[in-house]
């Protein structure tokens, strides 16, 4: 997976002498891949949007939803062209859904993108990388659609398709009075614990009567006393959330004269979740009602026994077709990565492909290509699968009954109900779409990967014949034209890309321009004259290539031999001679950018050349005692590189160096970083350098056998289970004296809250008048009082668990038309500082803000309201000040934050501007900072703790100075923002002649984060998010960073010390790749150092650690295609703009350590903080355990949750 971590990437070492030609060939951006054999389109995952993709596919495959959405034209929704007009009301979300559904139906691509849709949701890049609950998304998306479609013919789209009503009835057994309560719902959540089947769960929840008697009496309003009663619960006019493929809902619905067939529902979508409560992955099983896809799969007539132990004779094992096919038949979908195929082959027969088959059949990939009638290689040749319609003639007896056929089930007659034909089910997993059988659904009803959300349609819903297998059905004309034009453009791009992808760039090294020196080939004059670049079509043959070279080299005489060459540390080495003029370049496994040596096949410059990996030259570091002029050995050790063929005997080293035979010692690096030396036994002197395990860069120490002095330096207790509880704890918070401070009230889940309150008042022996002016409020684990619970609720309806704590408080609970709200001042809310109000749900945002300001005693009108999100942070502002709280879906118990500052107008941003000086403060900066710190109320300066321990002379803390706020249009560019920031009152104190001398960063976690690099890009394209904070950094000269440029802070280590010189900015062009070798080459050029003597490391300030960036990680192997190089953007480096890179010159500093004294102090401080935090957590757990033992409620830590929201404009 990681390659050889200790193997050097020599491309950077040899680039000084052997460049790769005169130009850089960049690969054009490929168009999206066409649809696969299912003819259905997936959706690309943006990082954490699998839950969104599963729900969108379900809605797309719901014909009634899709066609109702398509029926809304531009006259109702508006158009994209008008979305930036100030007075136009363009309903972006339904428009983007229409376009996405049209792409899923008609655009010939493997997967569609949801970027435009999530942009219309108002999501930032952080929200696109974070996974949420799909049921939560379903409710929020439906709510957003309802809001977006207000005033259109689709205003009731959601309620018409998904709305249902639950009916709760309580019947008094004495007077037969019926108390009825109805609740609306869009989906049902069904509990399955301790229930054998989900039909039983539905029966228990919605049909069986629950009796109130004995200690659980019901307070009847007619009898005006506690009586025995029965409660039943039903729902009507809806679908069901259950497991069966077909379900009859009549037993669960109110009885009517409707035909029984109207209660039959068929399952058509199963959203599946794999993982735990706080993460995992979603995909979806979907029934293709309209048969839009090609439902085709492999159906096995008999399951073959493909165990290779059944191969009885040697001939079967010798046939690679039999072995490879048997391995693939054991894999899911008969598909496997090529690398794993070789590993499984080794595991099965005990020999690798190279040892068993390569000599006769060639490389594995070439063998798979030559048998394309059986094997199918992916476009990048990374995976291989069995062709689904191949015929294999030479198969053994044990496999002859293993004939697989394609079976395509088609409907018997168009327009028939799906129940009369084969149901077409597909597994849609983000971009991938695979057909499945109906019985496969049952496998997802249990285990870690199981059904999570199910969708049903009425069985009686008929589809018109013209909708069958017709993706253009009901799609509006403007979308049909848009998709047709997009398909034509895709076809054109694919044709251009196909032509471009078939061109190879070959580097021809001309033999007459080379000479053999120091164990390898080197140019006689220069790189330019000795090497030519040739662009050639890879579909042509090797003979065509040879003929083209003959035409280019008019002076060539004699035979022409083409050999594959590689650049190694010693120089240019020849490996394999290319034979077979009838083979195409693909079949010869020539890679793009391959080095080809053109020669006569015998000698270069009169010297016979050995070829192949066996004689590959190795560069070894040889250490020995320096010899004086008198021939005596000095005590000074000399180290020098020498080149030896890897197939030469180790003993020839003494002859080559003209030194007396002595003792040889080789070194190996241990994990601890120490160098261990081991003596080479005399019997191993006949072994080759390769057999001894030596490689490029290995060290060999020669010691005189007569000298005895060594040249080497001296070197649980399980917590008891909690019993079931049947009581609640009520505390007296009425500020009235009583004998008891808290009491326990017996209850069940069906006990009414009013009964508990009356019992508590009696137990406390308080005044009876308190019954009319008190309420019960839940107390959370932190001791906070929550929203009052209505008296009419049962404990189950109020979602109160047994053993919970309640507070008996003065004041009535809010009525059904009132809201109980918490509010606090500012965004940094401390526990216990919230205030409370009760307002009517029809109160406007403006009036609610006035009430809050009056209660808190705050003057002025420069305030606005924000809703606190699930992360207990300030969420989106409530922009619509005239809207009612009910319209904005504000609920009882919500917390609103009163934030200082008026909201910017729609389409504008309010950006907080900071000044950032990374290289240490000047005297002017210090004095200004001191003046600012004298005004703590302004809070102008804060420091980034995450940058503590910065190396060398970089200040321990990075300071940011607050300059002020800028109100600017979303359509303004970054340079406009810089110009406006320069007009702030505090800005003239800093020298910046123009916006071009300012570098802009987003502020993340109170320190510079993402670099904003394009001055002309509109601000809205940066997705700045809710908190628009930008810091500006001064520059000494103008800069224009391109999209491929990476900005790094580089520091040279001072030799002999544990310190660094001040940082310098380095711009690294990553167009050549994000490899370690490319970065090291750039650093070496920047500091004018030899690249092989340059060592670099990335600094992680939060850990006070340096991680060396090694480019010695690519193995040079015979005839192996170019390996995908490590990407420094990924693990473990995660390189980004602004990172600190430490640099060491190995010529003067060969110490492996990059750390500083400050790093040691920082690690020690972190260790002490972690120890103190651990003790605090243990004390807190002990305190929590004591606190909850009496209540029987053990505290359970839970990670913070992130809220999900979709931002919708006002269309009222």
Automatic annotation (TrEMBL):
Record flagged with keyword Electron transport: no
Entry-linked InterPro entries: Papain-like_cys_pep_sf (IPR038765), Peptidase_C19 (IPR050164), Peptidase_C19_UCH (IPR001394), UBL_USP40 (IPR057763), USP (IPR028889), USP_CS (IPR018200)
A GO MF term: hydrolase activity
Biased composition (Basic and acidic residues): 1175-1184
Keywords linked to the UniProt accession: Hydrolase
Key word Cell wall biogenesis/degradation present: no
Taxonomic superkingdom: Eukaryota
Positions of the USP domain: 41-459
Annotated stretches, region: Disordered: 1165-1212
Protein name per Swiss-Prot or TrEMBL: Ubiquitin carboxyl-terminal hydrolase 40 isoform X2
Originating organism: Galeopterus variegatus (Malayan flying lemur)
